[in-house]
Design a protein that fits this description.
Structural class: alpha/beta
CATH architecture: Alpha-Beta Complex
Keywords: Cytoplasm, Hydrolase, Nucleotide metabolism
CATH topology: Maf protein
Mean pLDDT: 96
Bound molecules: thymidine-5'-triphosphate
Pfam family, one: Maf
Family: Belongs to the Maf family. YhdE subfamily.
GO molecular function, one term: dTTP diphosphatase activity
Largest sheet: 7 strands, mixed
Strand content: 25-35%
Number of strands: 7
Cofactor: a divalent metal cation
Distance between the termini: 17 Å
């Protein structure tokens, strides 16, 4: 079986490489703003499915797609659209605990599965100056919730509860376990 990663995210590509999987990458073209859902879990699953549907699997292919959002107090945070937006998001998350949800869709011609995983992340209390300095790194702009735990955003994080890799964009070990049901096996390519 040929695995196709339906994602333009360099993080997701890196994570699958880390798992030793062989795959091709294709970028789905979706309007993420057009989708609504009752809560963050439903939203990320819907978006993951939508991304997968843009690249239907051919015979012998398995298509993997995903979406990540941050939620706090019923509010859903996606990627910031501006510096002000990033500052507003980080101020909201500052000193509190939020959840990072990643939805994953896996499809072959014969079957499909969709699931979501949530990780709790607690931020330190930062000053406005520290948040502004973090935004100056440029890191927030392509990331849900306006931070990257895998980069300098690590300094905002006091603790996490759950899968770290889920925060970065894919709940890696769960994904690999699910892929095995589709005939995709890790460690086979070195
Ligand atoms: C919270 C957090 C998010 N992110 C990233 C993961 C996702 O790539 C991104 C959320 O945007 P997504 O829309 O999930 O993904 P994407 O647009 O980067 O890629 P594609 O839709 O093509 O698959 O935020 C981090 O890299 N680190 C973090 O700590």
């Amino acid at each position: 079986m040929q695995l196709i990663l339906a994602s333009g995210s360099p993080r997701r590509k890196k994570l699958l490489e880390q798992a030793g999987l062989q795959f091709l990458t294709k970028i789905p073209d979706v309007d993420e703003q057009s989708v609504t859902a009752s809560d963050a879990c439903q939203l990320v699953k819907k978006l993951a499915v939508m991304k997968g549907e843009k690249l239907p699997p051919a015979k012998g292919e398995v298509v993997l797609s995903a979406d990540t959002v941050v939620s706090q107090h019923e509010r859903i945070l996606t990627k910031p659209e501006s510096r002000e937006d990033a500052f507003a998001m980080l101020s909201e998350l500052n000193g509190e605990t939020h959840q990072v949800h990643t939805g994953v869709s896996i499809r072959s011609q014969g079957k499909s599965t969709v699931f979501s995983v949530a990780t709790k992340v607690t931020f330190w209390e930062m000053t406005d100056e520290q948040l502004a300095a973090y935004i100056d790194t440029g890191e927030p702009f392509d990331k849900a919730g306006a931070y990257g735990i895998q980069g300098k955003g690590a300094l905002l994080v006091q603790k996490i509860h759950g899968d770290y890799f889920n925060v970065v964009g894919l709940p890696l070990s769960k994904v690999v376990r699910e892929l095995e049901h589709f005939g995709i096996v890790p460690f086979s390519s070195g």
